[in-house]
Task: structure prediction
Amino acid sequence: MQPEWRIDSHLSLTANYTHFLAGRFLRETGPGKDIDYAAARLQYRF
Result:
């Protein structure tokens, strides 16, 4: 999922969200856990 919001002609905001599901192998061989990743980026274009 990656929504982008154009605030005006120079400024935009982009967000990312990812959920990684650890499979059977990772759970059996170590501390395999599901992981969430979120990021946001504010970009100014000249």
Notes: The chain has one domain: 4-44. The CA atoms of residues 19 and 36 lie 5 Å apart. The mean pLDDT is 90. Residues 4-44 form one domain.
